[in-house]
Design goal:
Elements (H helix, E strand, L loop, with lengths): L3 E8 L4 H14 L3 E7 L8 E9 L12 E6 L2 H7 L3 E10 L6 H4 L9 H8 L2 E5 L1 H8 L5 H10 L6 H11 L2 H16 L1
Length: about 190
Amino acid sequence: MKTHNILLVGVGGQGTILASKILAEVATMQGHDVKMSEIHGMAQRGGSVVTQVRMGEKVYSPLIEEGDADNIVAFEKLEALRYVHYLREGGSIVVNDQQIDPMTVITGAHVYPPEVMEKLQERASDVLVIDALQLAREVGSIRAVNVVLLGALARKMDITKESWLEAIRRTVPAKFLALNLQAFEAGYSG
């Protein structure tokens, strides 16, 4: 079996790492060897957070090389554009249609790039844009954006919906479980 590479990119505080842990759990449940890598940067100040999840029969490194990601899950649209060069030919991107200004934009040193989505669609043939923030609001918490995005990703993967739900049950603390199951369903039915 070919190794499947998924890059999750976002901004500090969006739940990128929890989403990666759920993804790693569902892959482990499928019998895959799984490796995960996290890069936090200046996450506490709204900086980039990148996690890489690789799954397959035998995975030797947790790192995805440029041009090798089968899927990118972007929690913020500029982060999608920043990492699109990691996507392989024919790969897919799930993008939260949310703008979070980086510190350089907040301070006035730069301007948020216009037409981010158009630029993404020029570079990738399979781009799924989802208003994950609104869907998370509808299920009761904006903190559930991460699991909404996993629901959207699940539509693009050959893993049963029940397996995803079980991975969420195994990973998410009990007091947040009902909310996260609803968030997954919102993203999955999208």
